[in-house]
Specification:
By secondary structure, the chain is α+β, with helices and mostly antiparallel strands. The chain has a single domain, classed as Deoxyribonuclease I, Chain A (4-Layer Sandwich), CATH 3.60.10. The chain has six helices and 14 strands. The protein is globular, with a radius of gyration of 17 Å.
Length: about 250
């Protein structure tokens, strides 16, 4: 089984940039999209109900903002939109419960706007951690994918020193990812590619992607009881269409 996660920075924009052709060729078993920035009624039927997939949309109430979508060849046992009480109007989480694991497709908030939004981002992390801890205590296997909006270590961005005071690489944000690992999660890309330098997001400015001046802020995190089922974790940085590239998790049951 393969799961692909991709912050598309606008589903309509990525469709114009070849998304459907890429999908037709790649055909992941499960596809998780973040920052869709659209309501289903604004899209063509062949996107809303992607053929051969069970399709779940969680748009933000505000048009042109946030939102997530999950497409799965396997029908989940349960779907929960916005399981956290925090910011349910922003469409940031889709939880799909499968027989062998629980999948979270999450678009974590960006904290760059101001101090209030940074606090909201950290509150969101806190709320999700509490929710996840309960599931972990019951022995559930979790996969948490999406745009975390935080680079964890210096290896995860091109210019760590010049970004130490910028949201996305602040010490407190990085500590939250430390906390997640201490809870029992594994950063799957680092598990398989300890020292490999690859990024998942590049600014549209200054030809950043062309120069590979990027950040790794998109992750597949899994609980330790899932590690035996994980066969690889990849960054698909040859796929264009957004300022993020897709990431992929290979599972075997």
């Amino acid at each position: 089984m393969n799961i692909v996660s991709w912050n598309v920075n606008g589903i309509r924009a990525v469709i114009r940039n070849g998304f459907l052709g890429w999908h037709q060729e790649y055909k992941p078993d499960i596809l998780c999209l973040q920052e869709i920035k659209a309501l289903p009624e604004q899209l063509e039927e062949n996107v809303v109900n992607l053929p051969n997939y069970h399709c779940y949309w969680n748009p933000a109430k505000r048009k042109g903002y946030s939102g997530t979508a999950t497409f799965s060849k396997y029908e989940p046992m349960e779907i929960i939109l916005n399981p956290l009480s925090l910011c349910r109007d922003e469409g940031r989480i889709i939880q799909t419960n499968f027989k062998d694991f629980i999948l979270f497709n999450i678009y974590f908030p960006n904290g760059q706007k101001d101090d209030e939004r940074l606090k909201f981002k950290l509150d969101f992390y806190d709320a999700f951690f509490e929710y996840a801890k309960d599931l972990i205590s019951r022995g559930k296997k979790l996969v948490v994918c999406g745009d975390y909006n935080t680079a964890h270590k210096e290896i995860d961005l091109k210019n760590p020193k010049s970004n130490e005071k910028r949201s996305g690489f602040l010490p407190i944000e990085r500590e939250y990812l430390d906390r997640m690992l201490n809870m029992g999660f594994i950063d799957t890309f680092r598990y398989f590619h300890k020292d490999e330098i690859k990024y998942t997001w590049w600014s549209y400015r200054f030809k950043a992607r062309e120069k590979n001046v990027g950040w790794r802020i998109d992750y597949f995190m899994v609980t330790k009881n899932m590690v035996a089922n994980v066969k690889d974790s990849k960054i698909l940085d040859d796929v264009y269409g957004s300022d993020h590239c897709p990431i992929e998790l290979i599972l075997e049951f």
